[in-house]
Design the sequence.
């Protein structure tokens, strides 16, 4: 039985569908929504903005706020409670480092822009191949 689920969520429609799937497939599980800030991109992206911010923690919280608000709304629609967590780093590494504490990981099939996927590689594929626990990839 799956009792702990890690949902890797971003600010996309796919991220929302990923959480909806996890809540429907595992309604009785403890669900943690993980948002990763500062992953590499072709232009530096969030990592550059974080490095230049006066208050690093506040800047990461600001980036995650909208994602977590959306996640809480989705959880409320499913009459579920979730835990939220924001981490800084490369998405694949962060997700894999957290995966051991869960029974399964749920991740969206297409996250990030096309340029990010070409430059960085497909996060879902790398997590799927390397995860120490089962992974569900939502399409």
Sequence:
């Amino acid at each position: 039985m799956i009792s702990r689920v890690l949902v890797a969520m971003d600010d996309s429609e796919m991220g929302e569908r990923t959480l909806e799937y996890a809540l429907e497939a595992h309604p009785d599980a403890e669900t943690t929504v993980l948002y990763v800030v500062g992953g590499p991109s072709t232009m530096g992206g969030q990592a550059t903005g974080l490095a230049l911010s006066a208050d690093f923690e506040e800047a990461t919280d600001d980036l995650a706020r909208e994602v977590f608000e959306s996640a809480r709304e989705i959880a409320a629609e499913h009459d579920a409670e979730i835990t939220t967590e924001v981490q800084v780093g490369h998405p694949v590494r962060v997700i894999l480092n957290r995966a051991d504490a869960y029974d399964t990981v749920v991740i969206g099939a297409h996250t990030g822009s096309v340029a990010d996927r070409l430059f960085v590689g497909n996060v879902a594929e790398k997590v799927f191949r390397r995860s120490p626990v089962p992974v569900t990839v939502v399409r």
